């Protein structure tokens, strides 16, 4: 870059073609995941799991296992963890309901009962067979609509009708708005679960040493949460627990709670004073981690005949599984985002999270919103058809706009949904007439940029960052954010490099180690670009201001003449310069040396933090998007093939261009899988397909082209105007597929994943109705 | 079970190992030789994270016993670099952002390399079919397809 062009260049790093800073490690096999960690004197752990969906533990006899050659130790709830309960909603004790090694009762198939440590994984596995457990099997219940019945078995003491959490959201006069409605439609939906299927399964290596310190390598998305949670369950000080998670093989919302791997390895290590490694097999990961929450959704919507939205009411019963996890948040967010991205004069939501004897359900990318959009965006399509209105224009006229306030809930600042409609319309028009077996479906949504609700009850700022500058100008950036593949390390390094005015290769980012990085809530709810990004920007601005003080004091060196007070100095692309005359300047590393001398040899240190204030209790900013999908459906087999797609997307100012495209394409593949492939059938509490043969996901041959139309908006609360990208797009796609099927055949898909037999049944039903309709005439 | 002698070449280095004959090739690579770039994501030969090249062919190393690789030439992700220079396919993956969490990446790159060795000018569909046995949960595959296509077009060859 020439120095004179600096005056007109908005960004030198942001939204340019920047490579992922972890790229070399990841494409060469150098990246070391928890799965790869091997410590001296390390043991291998295995977990004995409940074969029953609901049972009392009467007795555990592990004496034979302990005698087995190579076995070093066994832990159980009764002897070691003594019924310690845990949960991530620390502010509400009754929601901390999970004993990872239960004292006396198991509540789902796969629940940990005991853990063994041995010299090898094989020995540990064999020793599991030698543990004798006496159970008293109890009656079990698997579906929320059964579990709320009076006669249903009680899963947790004191929770009437197995209702774990309820949530109510309401604004406006809902009943009055319904009275004004000229058309009302109500539907029931059954929305499916989904497994995170991170390629790295749950993995932990715990190393408790006799000085009372515990170091844990763990595949997770929030090292600080895990540090605090582990300290809590082990009765240790947070500062004595160190969590390291340098490379994480995917998480998708499934890795910020305690899991059996981290808990059991730590308890074993504390007992045996040796490192213990536990890696879940793929089957264990399926049956004993957690999943997206399945939901029964009732939706009633009232509109005017011209398509003006008036009132909406939703009642939701979710299959919470055996424990709370992050399910309480998903219950709230599904209700909130069910209203998005539209304006309702009256809106009422009642959510009931119900305990069942199945795998617990929790957060997963989209956090309740994919379920909400599957129901909402299909029903809206049907309403438009019922009223003979253009579904896009009907959506457009009811949508949020910049400055809109969701009554009593949130104020929308930036909002580019209107332009998203334009882009989708253009795309559909360009396609022209489609072959007969194809149709286009669309779906809209909005999503949050980080959560404000502080259920974790942390006293720390939500995000923090520190920047120090070395004598050669290289920069150490310390963050508590977690990169689990979404590219936050790169995004945060970009923000740092841009703000400080240096190059990407100058930034060394330090993250994923609680001993060396500031606390941060981590990677969930699409929070890191905005929240950690703001902290990084503040820290870099702080460091830059300190540097520039020396530049002003030595203006004759920088500007080559005395500096008139009306002129200011800046650093861009490693060039310290007079903004009005950018060719007059000095190399940044020279300034660093001047500053170092001026500070008597102390490094420049910049500090930054961010906690949202006066932004309501949900999120500081909202992204908007529209998903268009062209779908081919085989009438004979019911098979779905995705032909093409367009994502029209408003994420504010894009920061990390390559990362953004990757996030949108990745979200699409996960969301499309949720729409028509990823199915978790249970029989008597047993997951029927806990492997990657029978659990179908999108593969390379199923993925359509993924064009992206970025809408240019600026979010005032975000760093450089940025907001959420990559989680929100998990929300609209399943409904878009459903809408394409609706337009192709006129049948309504009220359950997902939309499986071939569902399409065939719907077509058969439609045929029969047509026949009997003719007869009746 | 009595241990047996296994002789094989991994990334050009000869190895002589005494192993339980039930040991899988992936276990020999990761646990005995210590090359942890090769991953495991399932135990049903479904995900491809453990893909290596065996005498030039892409093989899921969890699908064969190590003894079946007796005398064979094995190449893992660590063997693609030549004297510190990344292979074109590795450069292409970086330039196209064709990875996210990176856990499937080693296997994906080995599959891609074997595909290109066998078919230097694949169509887009041939690329997709070629990597169909490898699951990537993060990227949605299209960036991977672009990276392989760009490599085939010679964009990352040494100048």
Describe the structure.
The complex is a heterodimer of chains A (777) and B (159). With 777 residues, chain A is of the alpha+beta class. In chain A, 29% of the residues lie in helices and 25% in strands. Chain A folds into three domains: 4-31 and 462-610, Aldehyde oxidase/xanthine dehydrogenase, molybdopterin binding domain (Aldehyde Oxidoreductase, domain 4, 2-Layer Sandwich), CATH 3.30.365; 34-368, Aldehyde oxidase/xanthine dehydrogenase, molybdopterin binding domain (Aldehyde Oxidoreductase, domain 4, 2-Layer Sandwich), CATH 3.30.365; 399-445 and 622-777, Aldehyde Oxidoreductase, domain 4. In chain A, the strands form nine sheets. Chain A has a seven-stranded mixed β-sheet, sandwiched between helices. In chain A, strands 7-16-15-14-8 form a five-stranded mixed β-sheet, with helices on both faces. A four-stranded mixed β-sheet of chain A has the order 20-28-29-32, with helices on both faces. The radius of gyration of chain A is 28 Å and the shape is globular. Chain B is of the alpha+beta class and 159 residues long. In chain B, β3 and β4 (57-60) form a beta hairpin. In chain B, α2 (88-95) crosses α5.
Low-confidence stretches of chain B: none
Count the DSSP helices of chain B.
5
* Rg from alpha-carbon coordinates of chain B: 16 Å
Number of helices of chain A: 20
Number of domains of chain B: 2
The stretches of 5 or more residues of chain A where confidence is low (pLDDT under 50) are: none
Write the topology of this structure:
The complex is a heterodimer of chains A (777) and B (159).
Chain A: H1 23-27, E1 43-49, E2 55-61, H2 63-67, E3 71-76, H3 77-81, E4 105-106, E5 112-118, H4 121-128, E6 132-137, H5 144-147, E7 163-171, H6 174-180, E8 183-191, E9 203-209, E10 213-218, H7 223-234, E11 241-244, H8 260-272, E12 276-279, H9 282-288, E13 291-292, E14 295-303, E15 309-321, H10 327-337, E16 346-355, E17 361-362, H11 369-387, H12 391-398, E18 405-406, E19 410-411, H13 417-431, E20 438-448, E21 463-469, E22 475-479, H14 488-500, E23 507-510, H15 528-553, H16 555-558, E24 569-572, E25 575-578, E26 581-587, H17 588-598, E27 604-610, E28 622-633, E29 640-650, H18 657-676, E30 682-683, E31 686-687, E32 707-710, H19 733-745, H20 756-776
Parallel strand pairs in A: 1-12, 10-11, 13-17, 15-16, 22-23, 29-32
Antiparallel strand pairs in A: 1-5, 2-4, 2-6, 3-5, 7-16, 8-14, 9-10, 9-12, 14-15, 18-19, 20-28, 21-22, 21-27, 24-25, 25-26, 28-29, 30-31
Helix pairs in contact in A: 10-11, 11-19, 14-15, 15-17, 18-19
Chain B: E1 4-10, E2 13-19, H1 25-32, E3 51-54, E4 57-60, E5 73-75, H2 88-95, H3 105-118, H4 124-130, H5 142-152
Parallel strand pairs in B: 1-5
Antiparallel strand pairs in B: 1-2, 3-4, 3-5
Helix pairs in contact in B: 2-5
């Amino acid at each position: 870059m020439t120095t004179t062009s600096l005056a007109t260049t908005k960004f030198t790093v942001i939204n340019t073609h920047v490579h992922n800073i972890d790229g070399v490690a990841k494409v060469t096999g150098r990246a070391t995941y928890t799965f790869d960690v091997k410590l001296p004197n390390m043991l291998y752990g295995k977990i004995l799991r409940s074969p029953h969906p609901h049972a009392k533990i009467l007795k555990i006899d592990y004496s034979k296992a302990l005698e087995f050659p190579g076995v070093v130790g066994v832990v159980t709830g009764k002897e070691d963890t003594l019924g310690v309960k845990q949960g991530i909603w620390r502010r509400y004790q009754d929601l901390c309901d999970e004993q990872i090694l239960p004292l006396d009762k198991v509540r789902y198939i796969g629940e940990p009962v005991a853990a063994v440590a041995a010299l090898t994984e094989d020995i540990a596995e064999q020793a599991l067979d030698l543990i004798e457990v006496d159970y008293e099997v109890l009656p079990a219940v698997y579906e929320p609509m059964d579990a709320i019945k009076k006669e249903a078995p009680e899963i947790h003491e004191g929770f009437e009708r197995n209702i774990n959490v309820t949530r109510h959201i309401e604004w406006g006069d809902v009943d009055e708005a319904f009275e004004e409605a000229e058309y009302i439609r109500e539907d029931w939906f059954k929305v499916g679960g989904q497994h995170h299927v991170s390629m790295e399964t749950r993995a932990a290596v715990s190393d408790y040493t006799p000085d009372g310190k515990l170091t844990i390598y763990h595949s997770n998305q929030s090292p600080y949460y895990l540090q605090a949670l582990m300290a809590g369950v082990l009765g240790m000080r947070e500062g004595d627990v160190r969590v390291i998670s340098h490379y994480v093989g995917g998480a998708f919302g499934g890795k910020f709670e305690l899991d059996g791997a981290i808990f059991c390895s730590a308890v074993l290590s504390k007992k045996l004073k040796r490192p213990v490694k536990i890696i879940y097999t793929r089957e264990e990961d399926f049956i004993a981690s957690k999943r997206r929450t399945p939901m029964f959704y009732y939706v009633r919507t009232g509109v005017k005949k011209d398509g003006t939205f008036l009132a909406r009411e939703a009642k939701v019963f979710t299959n919470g599984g055996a424990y709370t996890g992050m399910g309480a948040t998903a219950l709230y967010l599904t209700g909130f985002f069910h209203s998005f991205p539209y304006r309702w004069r009256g809106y009422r939501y009642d959510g009931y999270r119900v305990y069942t004897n199945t795998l617990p359900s929790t957060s997963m990318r989209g956090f309740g919103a994919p379920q909400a959009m599957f129901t909402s965006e299909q029903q809206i399509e049907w309403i438009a058809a019922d009223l003979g209105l253009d579904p896009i224009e009907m959506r457009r006229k009811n949508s949020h706009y910049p400055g809109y306030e969701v009554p009593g809930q949130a104020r929308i600042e930036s909002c580019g949904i209107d332009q998203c409609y334009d882009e989708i319309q253009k795309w559909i028009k360009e396609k022209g007439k489609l072959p007969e077996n194809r149709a286009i479906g669309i779906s809209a949504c909005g999503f949050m940029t980080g959560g404000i609700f502080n259920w974790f009850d942390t006293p720390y700022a939500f995000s923090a960052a520190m920047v120090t500058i070395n004598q050669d100008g290289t920069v150490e950036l310390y963050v508590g954010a977690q990169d689990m593949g979404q590219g936050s390390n790169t995004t945060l390094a970009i923000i740092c490099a841009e703000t400080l005015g240096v190059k990407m290769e100058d930034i060394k980012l330090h993250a994923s180690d609680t001993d060396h990085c500031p606390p941060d809530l981590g990677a969930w709810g699409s929070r890191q670009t905005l929240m950690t990004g703001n902290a990084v920007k503040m820290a870099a601005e702080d460091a830059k201001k300190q540097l520039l003080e020396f530049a002003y004091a030595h203006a004759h060196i920088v500007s080559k003449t005395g500096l008139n007070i009306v002129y200011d100095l800046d650093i861009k692309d490693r060039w310290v310069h007079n903004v009005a005359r950018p060719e007059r300047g000095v190399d940044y590393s020279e300034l660093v040396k001047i500053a170092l001398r001026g500070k008597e040899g102390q490094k420049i240190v910049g500090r930054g933090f961010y906690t949202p204030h006066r932004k309501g209790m949900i999120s500081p900013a909202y992204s908007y998007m529209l998903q268009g999908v062209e779908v081919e459906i085989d009438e004979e087999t019911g098979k779905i093939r995705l032909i093409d797609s367009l994502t029209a997307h408003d994420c504010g100012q894009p920061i990390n261009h390559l990362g953004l495209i990757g996030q949108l394409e990745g979200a699409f593949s996960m969301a499309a899988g949720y729409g028509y492939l990823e199915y978790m059938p249970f029989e008597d509490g047993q997951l029927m397909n806990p492997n990657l043969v029978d659990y179908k996901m999108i593969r390379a041959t199923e993925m359509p082209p993924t064009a992206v139309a970025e809408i240019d908006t600026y979010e005032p609360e975000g760093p450089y105007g940025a907001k959420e990208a990559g989680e929100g797009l998990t929300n609209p796609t399943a409904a878009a597929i459903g809408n394409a099927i609706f337009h192709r055949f006129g049948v309504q898909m009220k359950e997902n994943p939309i499986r071939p037999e569902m399409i065939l049944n719907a077509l058969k039903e439609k045929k029969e109705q047509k026949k009997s309709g003719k007869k009746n005439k | 079970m009595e241990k047996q002698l296994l002789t094989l070449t991994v990334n050009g280095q000869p190895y002589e190992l005494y192993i339980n004959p039930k040991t899988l090739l992936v276990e020999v690579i990761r646990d005995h030789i210590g090359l942890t770039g090769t991953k495991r994501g399932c135990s049903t030969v479904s995900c491809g994270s453990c893909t290596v090249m065996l005498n030039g062919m892409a093989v899921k190393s969890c699908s064969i016993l190590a003894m079946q690789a007796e005398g064979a030439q094995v190449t893992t992700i660590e063997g693609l670099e030549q004297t510190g220079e990344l292979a074109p396919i590795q450069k292409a993956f970086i330039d196209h952002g064709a990875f996210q969490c990176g856990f499937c990446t080693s296997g994906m790159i080995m599959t891609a390399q074997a595909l290109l060795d066998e078919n230097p000018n694949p169509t887009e569909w041939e690329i997709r079919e070629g990597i169909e046995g490898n699951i990537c949960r993060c990227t949605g595959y299209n960036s991977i397809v672009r990276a392989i296509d760009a490599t085939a077009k010679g964009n990352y060859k040494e100048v």
